[in-house]
Amino acid sequence: MKIAIQDTYGERFKYCWGCGSKNEDGLHLKSYPGDEENTCVTEIVPDGQYTGGVPANLFGGMIAMIFDCHGTASAAYFNHIKNGLELREDTIIKRFITARLEIDYKKPTPMGEIVKVIAKPLEMTDRKVILLMQMYAKDELRADAKMVAVGVKDNM
């Protein structure tokens, strides 16, 4: 059984609009360890209200939000396994937040399609994870991103 990384966030970190399980109005984006080693994956079919200036394409800010939520969850997971820990249902994972996010928009991302993002760690320290992400729709690269995510203390 695969466990969503966001479902292992501590209670006070479950209210994110993009990925928080306790945000009633949120999207509830879920990220999972990938089938390939050192990868995390998310998939979403964004609702029509998230269209951009061109109605058939996804709004760029929504693309950034997907990268943001998936990237911080992926950073938490990569840090977790680097420390020799397993992701289990009772895990309370260390939370990471975005310090920097760079996005290269390659092609328009079509609406009504599965959007898949794959994250891979590039560099890790005890407090920081740098990762690369690629966004696909219809098996074509639509955007890629580089994120610097930093771990936060539980009392942030």
Tell me briefly what this model is.
Residues 57-140 form the Thioesterase domain. It comes from Anaerococcus prevotii ACS-065-V-Col13. 15% of the residues lie in helices and 32% in strands.
Distance between the termini: 31 Å
Q: Main β-sheet, in a few words?
A: 6 strands, antiparallel
Give the tally of β-strands. 6
Query: What do we call the CATH topology?
Result: Thiol Ester Dehydrase, Chain A
InterPro entries: HotDog_dom_sf, Thioestr_dom
Domain Thioesterase: 57-140
Pfam family, one: 4HBT
Protein name: Thioesterase family protein
Task: Throw out a few tags for this protein.
Thiol Ester Dehydrase, Chain A; 1 helix; alpha+beta
Describe this structure in words.
This protein is of the alpha+beta class and 156 residues long. It has one domain (5-151): Roll (Thiol Ester Dehydrase, Chain A), CATH 3.10.129. It contains 1 helix and 6 strands. It has one helix at residues 60-82; strands spanning 31-33, 40-44, 96-105, 115-124, 128-137, 140-151. The chain has a 6-stranded antiparallel sheet, covered by helices on one side. It is globular, with a radius of gyration of 15 Å. The model has no long low-confidence stretch (mean pLDDT 94).
